[in-house]
Amino acid sequence: MKKLIIASSAMLASAPAFAGPGSMLPPATAVPEISALEGMAAIAALAAVMMLVWERRRRAM
Predict the structure, then answer these.
(1) Record keywords: Membrane included (predicted)?
(2) In contact, 52 and 58? CB cutoff 8 Å
(3) Cα(61)–Cα(58) distance, rounded to whole angstroms?
(4) CA dist 12 to 16, 19, 23, Å?
(5) SS3 22
(6) Which CB contacts under 8 angstroms, 24+ apart, belong to 34-40?
(7) Residue 11, SS3?
(8) For residue range 2-53, what is the model confidence (pLDDT) as tens digits?
(9) Would you state the torsion angle of the CA atoms of residues 13, 19, 25, 31, taken in this order, to the nearest 10 degrees?
């Protein structure tokens, strides 16, 4: 119960900071998106490198 009271009072105390247009938050930045094709290509490239390393180790033994 004590933790609930502390958490709710902290939330209420910080609410004005997020309330309006004069908030103290930094501006949003653009983040590049990865398409499904690019993601699968990256996974395929990693898998190919791992398979090459595994094959070289297997042949070296």
Answers:
(1) yes
(2) no
(3) 6
(4) 8, 11, 15
(5) coil
(6) none
(7) helix
(8) 788 888 877 777 666 555 666 566 777 888 888 999 999 999 999 999 999 9
(9) 130
C-beta separation of 53 from 60 below 8 A: no
* The residue count for the chain: 61
- Tokens 């119960």, located at residue: 1
Decide: helix, strand or coil at residue 24: coil
**Which of 4, 25, 3 lies closest to 14 in space, CA to CA?**
25
> Quick one: CA dihedral 46, 49, 55, 61, positive or negative?
negative
pLDDT > 90? residue 55: yes
Tokens of 56: 């070289």
